[in-house]
Amino acid sequence: MNFTRWSARLPGIPGSQRRAAARTDLATAPGRADGSVPAARAGQPGDQAAPVPAVDGLPAREVLDRVPALVAVVHGTDHRLAYVNGAYTAAFGARPLGEPARDALPELRELGLLPLLDQVLRSGRPRTLKSRKATDGRSYTFTCTPAGEAGGDARATGPGVLVFATDVTDHAEAAERLRASERRQRETAVTLQRSLLPQVLEQPDDLRIAATYQPGGTEAAVGGDWYDVITLGGGRTALVIGDVMGRGVRAAAVMGQLRTAVRAYARMDLPPHEILQLLDGLAAEIDANQIATCVYAVHDPNEGRLLYSSAGHLPILVRDEDGTVVRADEPTGPPLGTGGWMHASGSVPLGPGSTAVLYTDGLVERRDRDLDEGISALERALAGATGTPQVVCDRLVRSAGVQADHDDDVAVLVLQHPARTGPDGELFRNAALELLGGVEAAPRARAFASGVLASWRFPPELHDLGVLAASELVANSLQHGTPPMRLRLRRTDRRLIIEVTDGDDHLPRRRRAEPADESGRGIAIVATIASSWGSRRTPGGGKAVWCEFTLPGKQP
């Protein structure tokens, strides 16, 4: 077979023409430009060095046979095999010449290279397939180049294609090791991020809550998005979502410290804006160069509203029972860590049948659109989102187009206040009594509590404990509080809650009464007989003192 006509068409062999020119220059040059004589080759006197042939002067077969890469030449529309070099034979064994490539070169067929040969014939341009693992277990980069007519071989008709395969196994294995290392680092980073988030969300009696977290990007950099649900007692629940700016372990560390601080401050049962004031100072102490946005909200089922405060965070969205979505965008202060700002609290209705969504900017912010457009799109998606909180979470994330390669972390917290009717509604009841001053207030409160608890069909032991607790809380308020005063009883499917409010903001504390003391035992008695108790200042001034009893057979 004559390969002479292909000798000048070897673009798949980089540097061949440069090496040929260099060898030609060496063979023809009588001496150096500066007049020096090249060092003599060791040998017998009178020997002359054999001339080094140029690549352009070698037959194509001789060149291809010396190439360490794998070379095959096919011709015609069915790609009949015209030639394979020694390296190809060493890798895949002997190949029958004259047979179509689909039969003669099964390794190329399995790699999907045959359609590439068709493209080369049609376009007349080279094509490359990078780093593919062949049947011999090694990886190659294949370059297919038009090779013109097949010369004098009677079996070679039509234009040909030269297949040049470079062994890149070492590079491929190194790249795979690097990718595996990056995957492990990312998995470790995501595990760290998720470990800083709540492993199990608290589920209050009156709310149904779900959350989702989607890490952003593919690099091993954790983010600072977080959320939390905190049961405050007395039927109230705190909901938190925040976002530390930036990415990396430092952002995650700041996030972890802020989340821990929020849970600690929440136990003080302060108004939302006071919680953010404390967080603002703490954030500046943790890292003056790191800022964070945050929303802290409190749900009180007795009020039917969500009381909240925002530090530079995105607005809460609330969908009512009719599907109307309200954007709670005021009041909003600067992010945490900036200092010098007095935060304020606002409220938004959250009655039975309502759904509220708290989220981070990764859900709505895109490089190609305004942030407000993203929030408006989320409002439209929420208006049509029904089902459980987890279903709503998933629908909102899908509607925002969040994928695995999303470039920012996404955190979403969805809470629903179910509209309970029928038998389920019988498990959630409220009763309240306005307390007027005077000696008759205490017996009226005991009679009221006894009648309500009897109508709720509590067992005698719980009935008696509830009446005793109500009596002690009312007596404490009458002695130390100021009007207006109110006794409120509430039952859920899991607990009985007794609460007394008055106009004095001095919070009671549990203390040990001496035997001769005539007072100081009321709170101690309540703390002893109840599952839990607590007190807080109310937004309009005054305080609320409450206690809870777990219903028989229910988990607290």
Features:
6-stranded mixed beta sheet; 556 residues; 21 strands; 26% strand; single chain; alpha+beta; disordered N terminus; 5-stranded antiparallel beta sheet
Q: Roughly what percent helix?
A: 25-40%
Which regions are unreliable across 5 or more consecutive residues at pLDDT < 50? 1-43, 150-154
Number of strands: 21
The overall pLDDT, averaged over residues, is 83
Helix count equals 15
Fraction of residues in β-strands: 25-35%
Report on the structure:
It is a single chain. With 556 residues, the chain is an alpha+beta fold. 32% of the residues lie in helices and 26% in strands. The chain has 15 helices and 21 strands. Strands 7, 8, 9, 10, 13 and 14 form a six-stranded mixed beta sheet that branches. A five-stranded antiparallel beta sheet has the order 2-1-5-4-3. Strands 6-16-15-11-12 form a five-stranded antiparallel beta sheet, covered by helices on one side. It starts with 15 loop residues before the first helix and ends in a 6-residue tail after the last strand. The N terminus is likely disordered.
What's this entry about, in short?
The protein is an alpha+beta fold and 556 residues long. The protein is built from 15 helices and 21 strands.
Task: Tell me the layout of helices and strands.
Blueprint lengths: L15 H13 L31 H7 L3 E6 L4 E5 L1 H7 L8 H4 L1 H5 L3 H10 L3 E7 L5 E11 L9 E9 L1 H27 L12 E7 L10 E9 L2 E9 L4 H18 L5 H15 L5 E9 L4 E7 L4 E4 L5 E4 L3 E2 L12 E4 L4 E6 L11 H13 L5 H11 L10 E8 L4 H5 L2 E7 L5 H15 L4 H21 L4 E7 L3 E8 L19 H8 L2 E6 L5 E8 L6
Parallel strand pairs: 10-13
Antiparallel strand pairs: 1-2, 1-5, 3-4, 4-5, 6-16, 7-8, 8-9, 9-10, 10-14, 11-12, 11-15, 15-16, 17-18, 18-19, 19-21, 20-21
Helix pairs in contact: 8-9, 13-14, 14-15
